[in-house]
Amino acid sequence: MTDTGGPLEDDATRALRTLLTELDACTAQLEQAKARAEALLAARASGLPWQDVVGSEARPLIVERISTVLGALSTAGHAWRREQAAALQAEDVSINRIAAMFGVTRQRISALLREANDPA
């Protein structure tokens, strides 16, 4: 138990907290990308040619923001899934049951658990 009386802060909990932090950061990045896309659309609607619209876009480009967000979510989501699988296994949930819960194969769960147990 922690000082607050809750469960211990385990790897799965830390991975979930990290995922939440990434979701917040990614939401902000996507809001910025959306605002930029709306501005480009307005510029195009005002009659500017695509060359001027695209040429005036500041970096990071919309597509660069989206790529960054996808990478960050993929990394954080994978870590969460890996630690979640390890936490379930620590609670004696079978690999087959974890696979069913995640909607993946037992081989995929085995691979996740190998990653979780790899000290590197």
C-alpha termini separation: 28 Å
> For the residues shown, what is the average pLDDT?
92
Instruction: Tell the overall outline.
Output: elongated
- Structural class of the helices, strands and pairings? mainly alpha
Q: Any idea what the radius of gyration is?
A: 21 Å
The number of helical elements comes to 5
- Please report which band the strand proportion falls in: under 5%, 5-15%, 15-25%, 25-35%, 35-45% or over 45%: under 5%
What report would you give on this structure?
By secondary structure, the protein is mainly α. The protein is 75% helix and 0% strand. The chain is built from five helices and no strands. The chain is elongated and about 65 Å long. The two termini are 28 Å apart.
In short:
The chain is mostly helical and 120 residues long. Helices cover 75% and strands 0% of the residues. Helix 3 crosses helix 5 (106-117).
